[in-house]
Specification:
about 400 residues, about 40% strand, 8-stranded mixed β-sheet, mainly beta
Amino acid sequence: MLLYFKHVNKLNLKKRFTYKIGAVLFVISCLIACIEPFETNFDIDLKLLIVEGTLTDLEDETYVSLKEAIPSGGNSSVFRTLKNAKVSVLENETNRIEFTETETGFFVPPKGFKGTVGATYSLEFTTEEGNNYKSKSEILIDVVPIERVYQTTEDQGPEVNGNIVPGNTIYIETKDPVGLGNNYMWSWILYERQYACATCEGGMFYTDPLPAGKCVEDAQLKRRNVIYDYICDSPCWQIFRSDKVNTQSDVFVDGLTIQNREIAKIPYYHEKGGLIEIKQQSISRDGYAYLKLLVEQGQNTGGLADTPPAALEGNIKSLNKDEVVTGYFLVSGMKKQRYWIDRSDMFSRGFKPLGLLGGRLIYQEPLPTIPSDRPPLSPCLNGRYRTNSKPTGFLFD
C-alpha cells in the first residue's frame, strides 16, 4: 500500500458523526462482537444488568462479559462494567469451570478449555455485591462445516461514515443435515494491515508512559486543529468484528444446501487484500428465538435508532430478587474458515483504497530541522482490535 505523509488541518476533514444506538443494537452487538456503543437508549428507570457470553467447542472462543446500564436522565443510559464478579460454568451439572477476569468485566475459562458436543452447560456468577445469577442449561450442538466461501465486487458497496464506498460482499454455502431443528448464526473477524497506530488531535504523541504512550496537548496545534498520525513500531494488523446478527433456521432448507448466504460487506481498505475469518455456529431453539426477536424489534421496525423496545429477558435469572436481566449465554458448536479477499480487480479498475483512517491520508508529524528522536513510532499493542502477530493466512507483511 502506498503511504502519503503530510500535515493537515482538521477543519478540512469530513464531519464526524455522533450516533445514538438503541438498546437492541447494544445487546445484539455484545452477543457476537463485544461492540462498545457511544450512547445507548433504554426505556428503563432502574439499573439493568446486561450479560453477554458464548461457550463453544473451540479453544479461545468462550467468554462472559458483565455490564450494568444506569439511567442518566430521560431515556438515556450509561454503561458500567461489573468487576470482581465470581464467574463459573457448570458442565453436565457436576463439573465446575472457574473463569478468570482478564479485563474489567470480561471473564474467560482456563487456557485450553473447549466445550464438548452433547454436554450441557449453564452459567453461574456472583457480583461483588453478593447477588447471584444463573442461566438455563443448554446442550452444545455440533455444527456442520462451511463448504464454500466466495466473493463479489461492488462498485457501490458498504456505507462508511455516511458514504457508499467500493467493496466486496462475502458469501458462504453449507449443507444442512436432514432433520428439522438446526439453527445457525454467522459472524466474522476481518484482519487489515495497519500502518498508523496512534493519532493525536491538537497535540503530539509521546511513548511515555509505557506501554501505550499518550498524546500531549499542544496549544498551537490545538488552535490550528492539527492532526498527526504516528507510524506503528512493528508490523500491525487492525481487527474488525461483525456488528449485526445473522441467523437462519432450517425450516425451508432442511437437508438442502444453504446457498448465497451473505456474511459480510467489506470496504476496499487495501489494494493487496484482506483476511476474513468466518464463524458458523449452531444455536439452540431458544437462543435462535431470542436473537430473532431482537432483530424483528430492532432491525425491522424502521431502524435501530427508533424508540427501542423494553429490554428483553434472555436465559439468565436472578436468584436473589425480582430483577430483569437482559442478554443471553449462548452455548454452541462452532466451525471457522479463513478466506483471503482478493482485491486485484478493484486495483486494476482504478478504485482508490479507503485505508483505515476514514478515507484520508496518513499525516505524519514533520521531521525537525535539528536531529532528534521525533517523531516517535507508536506501539502496536495486542488486544481485541489490534495484533502485532501476523494472522495465519495473511498474504503480505
